[in-house]
Specification:
Length: about 325
């Protein structure tokens, strides 16, 4: 293993946390959901911890990665990840499954708070709709392909394994005890403009446009129901919707539990960068609070405003 000084420092930090190796092994097994031999192999350096395992350990056990990797004071390190939904590797699948398990874990902590500010539909909302899910993957794929050939919507096929994991993710997010969405006031207008563009250059057919449109109607009906109740009807977990009166530049979010915190920024459609840094999470919370102050709540409190909002979005979809 080349340049393994940082890794030795990381292992030393784990040994300081749990000086007894048997206890350290057991704690790693419980935290990472791995077997005893897999834990021993990581400590022997036969296999190194995956990046997301290191991030999870650092967050749960309060291990300073900045100090270990010698990040200069005042600088905050982020990690970027890309899951290839079209050809999931074993590591991609393990990562996705770990995310789902971590989300389900939050259901044990009633004070957990998830906040998502969006200028595009977040995956937690569109993942349950096949054609919307395919469209967002198609859109991201179109933005990142190399060469001059454009790939039509019909050729962007999602493997069954990815569909299954996406459905599991969609169901898992409804287990989060407290969720807040702050939506850009032009979110649906921008989405319709994107669909209209790809249709105009003949990458989306009439039939495919109709399927996307039907998914959007179904999503709006569901969101209207959730906003009316103030909770997911499947789990009764609290959900609040806000419409930002200021434009939102990208999707960013945070999740805070009694055990671990993390914030995310959506980048370039297919990438997500995240950090467990407490200073950055506090900054995210401050930004979100400002967004809430400049936004209009449409869930629970104001039936007329809520009805007007969803009726306007249905008109936007109808224009497609």
């Amino acid at each position: 293993m080349k340049n393994d000084g940082w890794y030795d420092s990381f292992l030393d930090a784990l040994s300081i946390k749990y000086p007894k190796k048997t206890q350290l092994i057991q704690e790693l097994m419980d935290l990472l959901c791995i077997g005893q031999e897999a834990a021993y192999r990581r400590l022997r350096k036969d296999v190194i911890f995956h990046a997301y395992e290191i991030a999870k350990i650092a967050s749960e056990w309060n291990v300073s990665l900045d100090k270990i990797i010698d990040v200069a004071p005042g600088k905050i390190s982020f990690q970027m990840q890309l899951v290839d939904y079209f050809d999931l590797s074993n590591q991609d699948e393990y990562l996705f499954q770990s995310i789902i398990e971590d989300i389900l874990y939050t259901s044990d902590f009633p004070e957990t708070e998830y906040m998502d500010t969006c200028n595009k539909l977040p995956r937690s909302l569109f993942a349950g709709y096949n054609y919307l899910n395919q469209f967002y993957l198609f859109r991201g794929f179109s933005n990142t392909i190399t060469g001059e050939k454009s790939v039509p919507f019909s050729e962007v096929l999602i493997p069954e394994k990815s569909r299954r994991l996406t459905e599991n993710f969609y169901q898992a997010v409804k287990q989060i005890p407290n969720t807040n969405f702050i939506l850009d006031y032009r979110l649906f207008d921008n989405l319709i403009s994107d669909v209209r563009f790809f249709y105009s250059v003949r990458l989306i057919t009439d039939e495919e446009k109709k399927f996307i449109k039907n998914d959007l109607y179904a999503l709006l009906d569901y969101l209207s129901e959730v906003a009316s109740y103030g909770y997911y009807p499947e789990t009764k977990n609290k959900v609040s919707f806000y419409i930002s009166q200021l434009s939102v530049d990208t999707n960013y979010s945070y999740i805070i539990t009694d055990k671990a915190n993390v914030c995310f920024v959506r980048a370039f459609d297919r990438y997500e960068i995240h950090t467990h840094n407490e200073e950055m999470i506090e900054r995210f919370k401050t930004m979100m609070k400002f967004r809430k102050r400049t936004s209009i709540q449409i869930s629970e409190v104001d039936a007329k405003r809520r009805i007007d909002y969803f009726e306007k979005q249905r008109q936007v979809v109808e224009s497609l």
